[in-house]
Amino acid sequence: MPLTSGDRRFIRTVDRLKVYALGLSGTVLLFLMFTPASQIHLATMIVGFALCWMVWLTQRLISLLTIVDLELTKAIDVLKRTLPAEARQELHRQ
Hints:
It is a single chain. By secondary structure, this protein is mainly alpha-helical. Helix content is about 85%, strand content about 0%.
């Protein structure tokens, strides 16, 4: 079952998330090393927003996987109903 363009775009975004997370963590580390203690609160807030965003993206990925699983289950059920008896037996053997 082919993915829609929206699904492909979302998967590319999740792949890029690794690079963004590494860049963000490096930036925050440098920021923490060169800022006074009073500004560390700001860095903590930035990290909190980044973690919330990552949790949101993870939830979107889980939703996408659930939708794909439901669609594949429906397609397999349709195939099982429409296939002749011989082809059904062959499908069960695999």
